Amino acid sequence: MNQQHQDERARIREAMDRLLTGQATASNGSLTVVALAVEADVHRMALLKRHVDLKNEFYARVRKETRQVPESEKRLRDNVTKLKKTITNQKTEIEELRQQVTRLTLASAALTQESDRQAERPPVSDNVVPFRPSTP
Asked: Could you tell me which residues belong to the region Disordered (predicted)?
């Protein structure tokens, strides 16, 4: 590791300590990677690419020391809950649509059958009265 890399890691660890003790100096003090990056004066992508272990360590410390769930995890859990609800609603809607297709198919078949029956009968003129069938 070069000196710049080591300095960056040291600044990140110091920033972790400040955030976890509630003594943020450069950020808003939230327990997020963004606030950690601002507090450590490093680019956020540095935490997400070069110092993933420190990001994971930060979130582990947030859980352990503050007994809180990190904000990013809360947002993800909320999204998962919303998505599960959406999936349930869509499954219900799909089932209703399937039932409607079945009903419409049956109605179409009944109408087609009725139309076929009417086509088989000869047309009756308005001035013609059909004979009643003979009874034995």
From this structure: 112-136
DSSP string, 15-43: HHHHHHTT--SSS---SSHHHHHHHHTS-
4-57, pLDDT tens digit by residue? 888 889 999 999 999 888 888 888 888 888 899 999 999 888 888 889 999 999
CB atoms < 10 A from the CB of 32, how many?
20
Amino acid making up residue 70? P
Helix (H) or strand (E) holding 101: helix 71-120
CA dist., res. 12 & res. 84, Å (int): 36
The average confidence (pLDDT) of the chain is 86
How far apart CA 70 and CA 64 sit, in angstroms, is 11
Q: Which of 55, 64, 57, 61 is nearest to 37 (CA)?
A: 55
Q: Which residues does 36 contact at the CB level (< 8 Å), separation at least 6?
A: 12, 15, 16, 19, 27, 47, 55, 58
Instruction: Give the DSSP H/E element, type plus range, for residue 110.
Output: helix 71-120
